[in-house]
Amino acid sequence: MYALISTISTWAIPAIIVFIPLYAYFKRVPVYESFVEGAKDGFQTSINIIPTLVGMMVAISVFRASGAMDWIVSLMRPLLDLFGVPGEVMPLAFLRPITGAGSLAFTTDLIKTFGPDSLIGRIASTIQGSTDTTLYVLTVYFGAVGIRKGRYALKVGLFSDMVGFVAAIVICMIIFT
Amino acid sequence: MINVIWIFMLVVGFVAAAAQGRVEVVTEAVFDGAKTGVSVSFGLISIMVFWLGMMRIAEDAGLLQRLAKLLGPIVRYLFPDVPRNHPALGFIMSNMSANLLGLGNAATPMGIRAMQELQKINPDKSVASPAMCTLLAINTSSITLIPTTLIAIRMNFGSAHPAEIVGTTLIATIIATIAAILADRWYRSRHTPPIVPSLPQQDQAAAG
């Protein structure tokens, strides 16, 4: 299991990066021109994140520096220590479904504080990468067609977020410790 | 909600710092946070430029459509109440394949087009149909093959193996998606009235 997962991690990106251009080349796509054309969007996409990320990073930074973050984490610690789960990642369970920028900022803050290769950094990265922002998706998709009653959609979204959160912690603790 | 969280963190942070008699850390934290926000966004540029270039090649080579075709059987299984050749299914497949490749910007318009098509066959226009709820379920848990943003951030902070989370993320995202689909199925069976066994042809004619 461990070998499989780390093989996926090591091979996924190089394999995709070779496969896509090669496949496209045989399909007679002008690969380099295509690449440059698409790459132009990358700059704008990154720059567009600045306002939301700065706003959220500032709030989280103040919250951490004041000691309020440690206080909240210490409230959850006794229970989590039983399972050896680092309490620092717990606020993500709450932030992830609600705000994409907020949870990205929080994950960034954890990676910055504890290091990207710490267990906390790895768990946070996995949680952040594995689900989308439920509330945002719900608002955008239902809002676009004027649905006012979402029935059970919110419950399903939140349930899968919770399962993904627990799964991310368990997998990281098995693989990385 | 986001407004409440944001103001909560700022105000509680301020009060906590002031109560400890060291309100000056707030100022420091503001500048530090803003700086991190900008430097992380700039750090994203390199990976995003490269990745979106790659994805454009995939698009031009017709890989997105290929992937969408592969997803056909899964999509028809997940959306039993959408007619086989309804345009909604095509948009759902495009939406799913864009999500798989981490193309959020391409996935959302496709998902919205799918919603609009589903709305056309929705009997009550203000209440979500079961098909809409399923589309939402697979989008909130969206399976991601390569979490590009996270790899970029990890690189930014000097990770020895920025991509080591690809495998763990993939497993977590698959588990979350399976959970979403199972929960959706369960609610579907509870909320949709059981199908009344169809009456023999002549009885219907007699009733009519």
Strand portion of chain A: under 5%
- Given helix and strand content, the structural type of chain A is mainly alpha
Strands of chain A, total number:
0
**Any idea how many domains of chain B?**
1
Largest interface: A-B, 107 and 103 residues
Roughly what fraction of the amino acids of chain B lie in strands?
Answer: under 5%
- Helices and strands of chain A, in order, run as HHHHHHHHH
Given as residue ranges, the uncertain stretches of chain A (5+ residues, pLDDT < 50) are none
* pLDDT averaged residue by residue of chain A: 90
What coarse outline of chain A follows from CA principal-axis ratios?
globular
Number of E-state strands of chain B: 0
- Major sheet of chain A: size, sense and barrel closure? none
Compute the gyration radius of chain B: what is it? 24 Å
Give the ordered list of helices and strands of chain B. Answer: HHHHHHHHHH
What structural class do the secondary elements of chain B suggest?
A: mainly alpha
Number of helices of chain A: 9
Count of discrete domains of chain A: 2
Tell me, briefly, the overall form of chain B.
Answer: globular
Describe this structure in a few short sentences.
The complex is a heterodimer of chains A (177) and B (208). By secondary structure, chain A is mainly alpha-helical. In chain A, 82% of the residues lie in helices and 0% in strands.
